[in-house]
Amino acid sequence: MNPVAQTGLVLSTGEGVLFWVLAPLAVIGALWLLFSRRTVHIAASIAGVMIALAIFYTALEAPFLGVAQVVVYTGAVMMLFLFVIMLVGVDSSESLVETLAGQRWIAVLGGIGLVVLVVGIVVGAKLPDGVGLAQANADTNPVGVARLIFGEFVFSFELTGALLITAALGALILTHRQRLSKRIGQRELADAKLAAFGQGGSSETITVTPSPGVYARHNSADSPALDAFGEPVQSSVPTVLRIRGQEAGVDQLDADRVATIAARGDMKEIDG
Amino acid sequence: MNRIAPMLAPAGPAVDFSQDTIWISVIKAVAIMVFLLISVLFALWFERRLIGRFQQRLGPNVRGPFGLVQSIPDALKLVLKEDITVKGADKLIYIMAPVISVFCAFMVFAVIPFGPEVRIPFTDLVTPLQLTDLPVAVLYILGITGLGVYGIVLGGWSSGSTYPLLGSVRSTAQVISYELGMGLALVSVFIVSGSMSTSQIVSSQQQLWWSIALLPAFVVYILSMLGETNRLPFDLPEAEGELVGGFQTEYSSMKFAWFYLAEYINMLNVSAIATTVFMGGWRAPWPLSAINDGMFNEGWWPLLWFLIKLWGFMFFFVWVRATLLRFRYDQFMHFGWKVLIPVALAWVVAVAVVQGVRQFSGIDLQTILFVLAGLLVLLALVMFFIPEKGAKDKAGGAGSRALTGAGTPTIEPKKDEYFDAFAGGFPVPPLPGQQLPPSKRRARVTTPAAPETDEENSDG
Amino acid sequence: MSLVNYLVLSGILFSIGAVTVLVRRNAIVAFMGVELMLNAANLTFVTFARMHGELQGQVIAFFVMVVAATEVVIGLAIIVSIFRTRGSASIDDVNLLKS
Amino acid sequence: MDTLNLSWLLIAIPLASAGVLLVLGRRVDRWGHWLGVLASAASAAGAIAMLVELLGRGAADRSVGVHLFRWIPAGDLNVDAGLLVDPLSLTFVLLITFVGTLIHIYAVAYMEHDTDRRRFFAYLNLFVAAMLVLVLADSYALLFLGWEGVGLASYLLIGFWNYRSDYAVAAKKAFVMNRVGDMGMLVAMMALFATFGSVNYETVFAAAEGTNQGVLTLVGLMLLVGACGKSAQFPLQAWLGDAMAGPTPVSALIHAATMVTAGVYLIVRSGPIFEGAPTAQLVVVIIGAITLLFGAIIGCAKDDLKKALAASTMSQIGYMILAAGLGPIGYAFAIFHLVTHGFFKAGMFLGAGSVMHGMGEEVDMRRFGGLRRYMKVTYATFAFGWLAILGVPPFSGFWSKDKIIEAAFVGEGWRPLVFGSVALLGAGITAFYMSRLFFMTFHGEKRWNDGHSSTPDTAIARTPVQHPHESPRLMTVPMIVLAVGSVALGGLLSIGGVFTSWLEPVTGVVGDHEPVLPVWLLMTLTLAVVVVGLVLAWRQYAASSVPVIALAGSVLTRAARKDLYQDEVNDGLLVQPGQYLTRSLVYGDRQVIDGAVGGLGRVMVRLGDVTRRLQTGYVRSYAATMTIGLVALVAVVLATRI
User: Fold this and answer.
1) Do D617 and C25 count as a contact with CB atoms less than 8 A apart?
2) What is the ipTM of this complex?
């Protein structure tokens, strides 16, 4: 036996099992990209693929990279994707009908060609026997990687730092929208309301708009709230219902309510 | 002797798992599961009892001694309720979301050390009180918490309803933001411990707990821990006044129970991490550790210290919940991004510089380290009190308010005269200055009549 | 079982990513295809790192990850701003280059 | 420390100042002009320090080379940037920096109301720097750099008010005509390099003796072409009159005192070459003589104050060139006249500027008259300059011009008689036109609208009301200083031949030469023609009234007013044939060359139209093309390897 073979890497059965379980799952998850119509499903499945890859990394004696993969890709990148999906319309499920003539066939051809070429090359290549990372990882994997990053690659590392900051700033600028008018905050709103009140507006303007439904009696959204004097507050019913004309009229109220309103009316007359 | 851990400590785990067979691992895993489930049940009771005390009432006290088993019927009730699947929901993800949450919550305890190596009773096997450890264990925890967010996002989205979606977006933003602060707080621990492995971090705190040496990082961690678990004062994703129930609005019964479970396990998780990383893990507190040549740091004793510290943090959670009010969302984000993260960053840089100087020049900088820590705490406090923007605006606003507020009617309080809420035919709340008559229910709390079930649904 | 399996898996994932870019019209999905391609490349790096017993491959994968993160940040920002101005996230709608 | 080694500072200071003024822009508007003055004054101070240093040395050590750096190392051509400080160049340096500084100061007030004053000073400083490079250079290549630099500065300054299109055209005209001269310079430099393998003065002059006379003649003539362009000598004289479009300080500094004399400097500096080429020397003298008369005749007819002065400048430089062409006997006098001329002509230009300042930018002498009562200082200083240029003893001009006339009479055969007579005649005409200018401006009755006196002449009444007034102190002081120079400089430098002996290291020692006529006779003759010219002018322009609208005049007058048809001649002889040639070339270019190229292009466009269809605008199509291409490429590579 030559010395290289002695140090050669023998993969354990456990790793084999892991691979044959996860690899098909990863491929299926990736295929979701091609066939699913809902973007959120795709994002979730790709997040799954990322986790599978993280597990592969760990199996490949790169635990640091595996965890970093989870933190970076699953925790940040895919989460960013989900955010953007929710920003640009979550419900848009996409039609899978191809609009460009011949595009699909070219894509399939190219894809098959790629697979055949890459797999053919990998299988056909004379690759050395695996060496394994036992020696390189002697001081644990993070330390080994850190030595390289802060040693040999320190300049590239600094550059990627600069790149990240540039990208963050770039994203800020790209998505920045110039505010055309001054922002109206809570305080401004309150001041405006009070000013309106001071100039003879109704007391409703300074308080929070009441929710629909009668306090402690009735909580359906289509019946207006009553103010402190028992008057119905029309603005408490959601705008949508009002536009649709689904507001509850007096005839739809229960007898109890009608009686209450009647009593209130009487009281008002007495007061008056 | 320098009390900071030596720089050249091995970066890998400090304990030996080589004797663990697959069966021992399985037993440990099952033990952790059981521990977590029981802890959650206990935590429910613990929280309600404590809140009761804080609010000058009794809390559950009927079922079992001190009402201890109250949580079991409550949990059963929750599970047996009708399981509604919303019509507009995306079924697969709707079901998957709580599963993801719970799954990720359970994963964290795998790397938490409960104690040192012990001999399993009735055998010769020696094994650490810890399921497993990695060179990157704490990073793994961060990754898992990152995954846990998916449960919230996907749950909110898949409900197909507006409030849950808003709640989930808020929650995601919140968790991601505070995860940054948390990660940065942990980085300074990595730097001084020279390792990311939990057992190694515990063993590096032999001399001094990091909560003392790295006080600013500890404070940052405690704050981001509250944000990370969506607990008061940072429970914005489920702010009832604004978002109904947040991302879990459309969940009910078993699926809701899973979210609920995940939330409490997450509390336990962050408490356990805080214990491990900052409070010396299973190590006995100082006067005890000195007794009899460290007797209390060996055998099964450490399990006790660990649990005491863990529940100390749980107590802190409840205390905060009972004491503080909810933040407004912009204040919360402002606090996270403009106070916590800068402070944490500055602290990391300071620690790195100190550590670098220590390693490359051999100067003992212990005193300087303390001075730095004090300065940073001061800075964090100062930043908290700096008004958000131009005090001038505020003064102007106050002036205009005084102008318009001149006409506000003041109501003279009438002594010995109670307000009749039902005077107008329907109940209205009292105006300022009016007094309600003493509640008739006041007497009921001492009589063991009806079980208190009116509260737990709003607890979530 | 050998390390070649990982390489084959990586090739398959890469091809799927590439085809996604060609087939899908939704810019976000196409972008995810690109991410998948990058990850497949990373898998190759890590596999070769193990094969040769050197950590350089892992370091390169680490850098690829960082660059991919920046790329995602900028790319998604562009998608969002395009969506704002054109109301669409379809890459076929961005065809002003057509003469 | 040897101050001569710091001579590069003389150039660097104004250059840096120009850079500061141009780069910092409006920010330095407030104090920029003073920076310009300071830079120029610093150079002047440096020049004086160098003068002291040189005077402290023996006559033989007064030529110092200062090596700066290797400038153009290109194959066999190695040009070092080096400075040559010797009496000749230092004379120029002193003239440039001293007169330059005075004119800077003058311009501070003169340009006060111009919003671009800062830019003006930047250009002035740039000019000073370039001019110093020109005179301090130790090789033709570096001289050429300065030569082009002053051309650029001149262009920028003539067109300083380029919002007026005729001014911009004047600037362009000056620039283009200078380029014609530069062609001569370039050819001369190429010939020098081909012959001597160097363009360094030292090498060239050392090797000039004993070189083929034909080559030297060619070089000399080409240098003369360059000199003609820069110094406005016949036949490249047309630009100088138009160059008066620039602000008056520019006319005084560049187009009277310094830049236009660069041609004289070039010929004197290249003395060894011309001495080896008598034919070229003869041509120089002829050119000088022609220009002398040419300028003088134009000067008699011009009504524009500045253009008349410009014609006078042309004529006076004709004197210098004539002197320079006479060989070693003339060199010193050429330079001497150059220096005195620098003073009195600059003084007169400044006086003209002062008159324009007081008269609301009016330049027509027929609308002046009687100004001596209103501008006493200007009148006095101008009078000294006038007397100096006339050559009235003991003013400066007498000492220098008289010597040139004497030198022109030296020699054998027909030459002394012809050139001497021309010089003598020129002196008479000079006296006439300068007196005409002087009397029209300062004497006689008012021919301008003072607003209250009712003038019978309606042509005057229609012009804007004038309030002539003396200029501010900042303007009059430089004029006074220059007037003092005009009065005394010639006499002072002539005592005991100080100036000629100072220049001897460069111009060589000249033995005694007797003119063909006795010296006393020449001097008397000269004074006589001067007096005749003066009296004629007095009668016509001071004693009798001057019409406001010029009379038609004789044929010669009309021709002189049109600059003796110089533009028309240029146009007919060069421009029209040139344009015809160019047009035919363009036609050939279009049809033959563009036809071939364009045809190729059209084919490509058609091809492009076809392939354009591939550009769908869809990113996915491009990506698909790339993918297919990549797959095909890799497949081909693999297939060929297996």
Assistant:
1) no
2) 0.64
